[in-house]
Fold this sequence. Notes:
Immunoglobulin-like, TIM Barrel, 569 residues, eight-stranded parallel β-barrel, 26 strands, alpha/beta
Amino acid sequence: MRQELEKELRELYRQIYGEKEAEQLLKDVDELIKNSPQKNTKQWLTQKDAVLITYGDSIIDKEEPGLKVLNDFLKKHVADAISIVHILPMFPYTSDDGFSVSDYRKVNPALGDWEDVNRLGESYDLMFDAVINHCSKSNEWFQKCLKGEKPYKDFFIEADPKADYSKVTRPRALPLLTKFDTKEGKKSYWTTFSTDQIDLNYQSIDLYKEILSILLYYTQNGARMIRLDAIGFLWKELGTTCMHLPQTHKVVQSFRKILDEAAPGTLIITETNVPHKENISYFGEGEKEAHMVYQFPLPPLVMFSILTGNSEKLTEWAKNLSEPPVGCTYFNFLSSHDGIGVRPVEGILTKEEIQLMVDATLRNGGEVSYKDNGDGTKSPYELNINYQDALASPEDSDEIRIKRFLAAETILLSMQGLPAIYIHSLLGSRNDYYDKAVSGIYRRINREQLDASRLERQLTEETNRKKIFEELIRRINIRKEHPAFAPEAKQEVILTSSKVFHIRRFTEEERLTIYINISEEVWQSGENEVSGKNLLTGKEIKGTLVLSGYEAAWILENNSHNKGKGEGI
């Protein structure tokens, strides 16, 4: 181990585990690094990078494993528009659609095997889920814990049901502790997310080493990016909120240092569905931590803006975004396998404004999940609805709904950071009422499994799905050719009109001015305000820009030195 790395890790481990334990842990980690041969990696992200978020079986064919079906579909229809594929948990599991992992080192047989993962990785960079706050009660570790076997007995958090847990942050309105039969009688264990998801105990050095070995295993099996799921809950300490504790940050920092050494170029992304200030703390305060954090306020703010036809809250928030540290960026998204979290807009939107979105969700066929506030009250936690349906009521026309949806996705593609598009957004899916009803799981409304042959027909015929898919692919491909969309390119947010979201993206060589009308009304710029080529229409604009309802414009300014591919300026 390099001397500098040894020094940095020693200090982290001393703070987490104490002086004595730190020295032995260093020796063990050194062995792990030595036994993890370095992989060839790519450099930092560019404007050519975009992420597709998908389950391994979002597209199904009963004759083929899920990852093969996905790979075939992407190569045929998406090609290189997308550069990174985020495969949501692809491991054997028992509940929560993959987030209750029973074996971290195997691929779910319904999806295929590691060879199928590697074949997908030949065409795309891959992002793996590391669901390391908890595991399934069926996981071998927990079964051995119940039998009293070492070191597994210490892998989990035995709890006193009589203790005071009132300060603990609860993401779901479910019991925090669950009783299990053990070799020594009934015992209560910490279960933050469900009775099937047993929290892991990072106070155990043996557990820490096991998790670290799994992360290194993922890098050797094709992971360019690793998503640390529910990472804010990692360290538990009674009498605290058990959220974002200093030890959690130090654990993530140690992961970063080790991966930088053993698998250089691997990118860490932290998943923390919390208010913005807490979220960006995972960039690290003076320490290298996550390369990316989720831009969690973006989905609800875009939804609110389009529902109200008013961009002021979105603009104000975006205007005050802090510049990410060098080598870091935001992970931008609107929709995912989860719902639309509303906690991140606490302090940005009022309770009344949040309630407006709650009411719209229920009116548009969705559901609302609530969190336990610890004082006997509950508050909205997540809006469970397909993003397209979230933006328009059932009585709105297809045309209006699609225009609103494309406006929203164009905001996503325009913002500083790395854009990530959920497969059901890319494919123009709608609410899946059947699966939600059959399962009783609200999130299933946006997790439909699409039949491959039916999907193929829908993308061939003149369907709404085809319209959305082709237009999004077209805009992604336009975006790829312009360095002003690179993550490190600067961003200036401008309050022009409440009807328009207006930003500039620029490098030394290229300037793009972006206007997105988030209202149904026609909007017109001032005279002599706009000069350049609208990349979305191919038309030159001189003087005044006119946008119809929900129309967008990416204006390559005429004073840009970089012409961009095929621009002919």
